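agent> step 3/5: call structure_predict on target 'ATP-binding cassette domain-containing protein' (candidate division WOR-3 bacterium).
agent> reason: downstream docking stage needs a structural representation; sequence fetched in step 2, passing through unchanged.
tool.input:
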Amino acid sequence: MNGIHIANLYKYYRSEKRKEGLKGAIRSLYKREYKEIKAIDGITLDISKGEMVGLIGPNGAGKTTLMKLLSGVLYAEKGRIEIDGFVPFRRKKEFLKNITLFTGQRSFLSIAIWDLPPEDGYELLRHIYGIERGTFKERLSFFVELLKAEELVHKPLRKLSLGERTKVELIASMIHFPTYVFLDEPTIGLDVLSQKTLWDFFKTYNRETGATLIISSHYIRDLEELGKRVLILNKGKVIYDGEKERLKSWIGDKKYVKIELAKPDIPIPFKGAVREDSTVCLEIEKKNIQNFIDKITGMDGIIDIEVTDPPLEKIIRDIFEKEG
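tool.output (status=ok):
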């Protein structure tokens, strides 16, 4: 039983240093200077076959880079990745037939058959992967039913909405029944109903096929939908690797409340309120939210109230404090 093994992994990018002003711009035409950025900074971890792992981190944390390293799109300057004994960036046929990378952005169907229905693209993929017709029909029926895409596969791709297009693109990326599925923010930009359909699909696919799924997100609210194990990535480092329930207990039962006031001098009689001009922010226990809203909506000068989960940045700070 192999699974995913990552040891002391580093990935660097070069970024051009740009100096301000006309003089700096002219100088850069003749002599360019670069700085080195660590996108992945010494990651070591193991993921067993059949796990469904959540990868959470703010934008720029290295999530997409890690996904591309796992799928072989990028190579690492230092360290080692092995998936079932294969080195991803060598891109061997036996390896590629068992993985998929889905980014939620333009992929195979959008490029190949924009004016045609998805079913035509699936037939092309059947030939590319060498899938027997009977097996192909069974798989397509499995995906179409789970994703509620019965009517979508017959419509021209260009006529589908973003949520609909995401579903049919997902089918295309998984028609070969991959055993390793890398999903880079697959629900971004989708409405709540479409997100739930995708989360249910991922869980079912993991449960019924035993495939390994790694799903990234920069939304802490997605924690409820992710697998038992969660990784938090920040500045290229894994700062948390453990059970989802343990992380949720750290987050606690608090919500963040942001209040927009008509005037900055309107008093807010609640402890812990942080004021900046006409905006007031504070933490409230979940069980007290309704009582708090009832009180605040009865006050004069309230323009808007927003209730959210704790910011990911705060959770990251708390992890650093708890882990030392």
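agent> step 4/5: record observation. The CA atoms of residues 6 and 142 lie 32 Å apart.
agent> proceeding.
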